[in-house]
Structure formats: C-alpha cells, structure tokens
C-alpha cells in the first residue's frame, strides 16, 4: 500500500466497524441502497464487466451482480472487503490501493466495461493521489468504456481541483449531474456525479 488514505487519517478509531454496521442496519430496514447501481446498470450492455473501485461494504457492486453483471470490487480497507465478502457473495472482492491499482497481478487481467466510484471515494483517497487514482482506475477500463464518479464537492476535494485531476488522468467529462438520479447539474449543488471517458 502507498500513502495512508484519508479514510485512515481523517476518521476515528472504529469508523470502519461503524460504517459496516450502519449499512447492514439500513439494508435490514429496507432502505433504498441501489440508486447508484440503477444508473450504472442503465448505461451498461447486458452481462458487462464492472469495476467497483472503492467498493466499501459492496452494496453497489452487489446490486450490479444481481442485475447480471460480472463485478470485481476493490477497497484499501480489509475490514470493509471482509464485510462485502460476507454480506454479498458473488462478486470478487479484493484489497488494493486505488492509487497503485494493477489488477492483472491479482488475476483480473481482462478490461472492464465501466468503473464506478460511489460513496465519496474521491474524498477519502490519500491527499495528492487523486489524479493517480483516476488514471489507475481508468487504465482498467476498455477504450469505449466509462468511469462514473460521485462525491460531495464541499469536503476534501473541490470540483475545479477534481476537474484538473480528470485532465491529468487522460480523461474528459462527458456528463455531469447533481445526483445519482440525474438531476441537472448547477453551481450551487453540493454533490457531483461525473461520467468520464478516455480523452
């Protein structure tokens, strides 16, 4: 692993365990946890290959798996990956640093049709690695595929800085929305969902 992520440095002890139990409780209550997956599924061909980058406890990848896609989920936190494997068998869940991602070394050499980065992944990567993360994730996506990223723009990463990282990673912005259910982007929005393609 490379530099410590903000998930490690900016959260309190026990945060991962709290996060795991929070989403287990939401699922038990019947909360709608599939919004991101619905959007991604609508953009994909059937039986696509999807990289869930920064997958956390696996809720997005798991939903895409139930919709017939082949999913590989990656997160730097082994506790979250353990919860994903326990709660959502089917996808392949791997521990890896997104800033140094090389899935061929982990037996996943085939390219992906898309990569999804939901749950504020970009806000929690190690400071200064944002462009590296985007570049390494995009390197695993086929030339005509896409990377979709959603995060709160009022936290650790301002949107203009993210946009510069997109360019530095060899990507370009195809679409931007203010929510995962495709509400129009506006400058007052505190959340951005960006669809990225290879430049």
| Beta-strand content bin | 15-25%
Radius of gyration: 15 Å
Q: Considering the protein shown, what is the CATH homologous superfamily?
A: Vaccinia Virus protein VP39
How many structural domains can be distinguished in the coordinates? Answer: 1
Describe the structure.
There is one protein chain. With 199 residues, this protein is α/β, with parallel strands linked by helices. It has one domain (6-198): Vaccinia Virus protein VP39 (Rossmann fold). It has eight helices and seven strands, in the order H-H-H-E-H-E-H-E-E-H-H-E-H-E-E. The protein has helices at residues 6-9, 15-28, 35-43, 59-66, 78-87, 121-124, 130-138, 159-168, and strands at residues 49-53, 70-75, 92-95, 112-117, 141-152, 171-177, 191-198. It has a seven-stranded mixed β-sheet with strand order 3-2-1-4-5-7-6, with helices on both faces. Helix 3 (35-43) crosses helix 4 (59-66) and helix 7 (130-138) packs across helix 8. The chain is globular.
